[in-house]
Amino acid sequence: xxxxxxxxxxxxxxxxxxxxxxxxxxxxxxxxxxxxxxxxxxxxxxxxxxxxxxxxxxxxxxxxxxxxxxxxxxxxxxxxxxxxxxxxxxxxxxxxxxxxxxxxxxxxxxxxxxxxxxxxxxxxxxxxxxxxxxxxxxxxxxxxxxxxxxxxxxxxxxxxxxxxxxxxxxxxxxxxxxxxxxxxxxxxxxxxxxxxxxxxxxxxxxxxxxxxxxxxxxxxxxxxxxxxxxxxxxxxxxxxxxxxxxxxxxxxxxxxxxxxxxxxxxxxxxxxxxxxxxxxxxxxxxxxxxxxxxxxxxxx
Length: 300
Hints:
- It is a single chain.
- Helix content is about 70%, strand content about 10%.
- The chain has helices at about 1-15, 20-45, 50-55, 65-75, 100-110, 120-150, 155-180, 185-210, 215-245, 260-295, and strands spanning about 55-60, 80-85, 90-95, 115-120, 215, 300.
- It is elongated and about 75 Å long.
């Protein structure tokens, strides 16, 4: 798969000028930012916040009732989400009064078996929001500093940082479209995307700026290595997503592992976005930069 994708992308890049390569990912980035802006205008956050950041209660238990029946039965308790994986139901509620919460917990524990209750306070959720934003912000700052120290040139460094920002923005836009909430797991996935993005972008930039040969030759060599690494990672993530999401179809005693499911699907879409941003956006910027400074397009 990696070799086929490499041949197709290499042919696509050679047949397009730099503006065309850059335009495609920038349009996707703009659409992703628009989706996040719409969500922000209605919720106050660029992506819907999960239990850890918004506060509330999650209750899991075994039942044969459908998610629709459970949603109707507990709609009076500020129910945010109701889902079933096999024989296990998961109900997620927003913040509520202590008395109402005790009433809810008593009702569920008396009616169902194997009940698991997880509660996050609103104040603790706000603190986690702040910590998550700091972690992502510091990661970008550290990445930008390291990249600039490596290349000591503005344009290639900006291209690497822009590619990483685009990966995160597109992943967040995807989360909004499919309804994945921001949780500690998805924050971890977004932070991992920064690492994956920088890895492939530095590989590309190093090959183009510091290796002999024409720009297109160096891009082709970097692409072969980079896409092999990315497609291998994608294959592992697809397997993790299938196992963590659909294992209950094999045996009813298994339940969906939501944390791993969310992490894997965010990483899958983020890495697909990274392929576009690295080999179209970053490549277009680098090729323009090298050809501008060296019209012959060859490094001695």
